[in-house]
Amino acid sequence: MQRWRGLEDIPEDWGRSVVTIGSYDGVHRGHQLIIGRAVARARELGVPAVVVTFDPHPSEVVRPGSHPPLLAPHQRRAELMAGLGVDAVLVLPFTAEFSRLTPADFVAKVLVDKLHARVVVEGPNFRFGHKAAGNVAFLRELGTTYDYEVEVIDLYERGEAGGGEPFSSTLVRRLVAEGDVAGAMEVLGRPHRVEGVVVRGAQRGRELGFPTANLETPPHTAIPADGVYAGWLTARGEAMPAAISVGTNPQFDGTERTVEAYAIDRVGLDLYGLHVEVDFLAYLRGQEKFDSIEALLERMAADVKRARELVEEHGSSR
């Protein structure tokens, strides 16, 4: 899969393509439906499928300080899109100048002049251009001028019978913030993942017999609510069952919020300085302060036992 940053990276001899545009944070099941349709149309027409996305998130430029928690970094999104069959991802630097492009100019400069769109596939609420003035009706109207089709794909709704909230990144962020990682997994189609570099912490886990990998996460990462979770810790390509703690460690009157993962039944792991991934499968309990270290250790052992059971029940698919 080709990856471009900025319009200047697009090959000059690039031909017609099927395009879809959006932030696509998380690449959840609704996104997968839209991207999957774009890939299917591209295969039918014998042209490449291109996803156009933005960095930073447009809200941070339009309303500084309003950057939403990120469900996946761009590298992770690109990997997920490649798995769906996308041929190229174009990341457009979203600047104040870019934000002032009118919807018509956006279509002309991006979709027509550079990507030579044959088909554009979007969700029903797609907005674009200065002050989000453009919508799918206007996109379709311009298509008659510039010779491209527009397909609008409805998003899935939660629940077997429908009637719930449409799948969206906003919904996933809310579920993650509430600690409902099982609900987030339903919308994403896979567990929510937090990535980061392993750094040295207070090393209390090691002293207590449960050494943890303490993650330094990128800015704006969507981190689940404080609590203890079951999931996986992936390092050097190996996914290991894990008990995960998120919070300030009230047992020791901590103040800094951390994400720490204990690789179950693994001894002697040295992960310092490595980039690792933590996938959240299930919420076990909230953060607590115990009457004694002995009571804490007893509960930690129970957490590890339950986490091991849940991961085994779920299997290795993530």
TrEMBL record:
Domain of life of the organism encoding this protein: Bacteria
Family under the similarity heading: Belongs to the ribF family.
UniProt KW keywords: ATP-binding, FAD, Flavoprotein, FMN, Kinase, Multifunctional enzyme, Nucleotide-binding, Nucleotidyltransferase, Transferase
GO molecular function: FMN adenylyltransferase activity; riboflavin kinase activity
Species whose genome carries this gene: Streptomyces niphimycinicus
Enzyme Commission number, as recorded: 2.7.1.26, 2.7.7.2
Catalytic function, reaction form: riboflavin + ATP = FMN + ADP + H(+); FMN + ATP + H(+) = FAD + diphosphate
Protein name in the entry: Riboflavin biosynthesis protein
Family matches, as CDD domains: FAD_synthetase_N
Top EC category: transferase
Biological pathway: Cofactor biosynthesis; FAD biosynthesis; FAD from FMN: step 1/1; Cofactor biosynthesis; FMN biosynthesis; FMN from riboflavin (ATP route): step 1/1
Residues of the Riboflavin kinase domain: 187-312
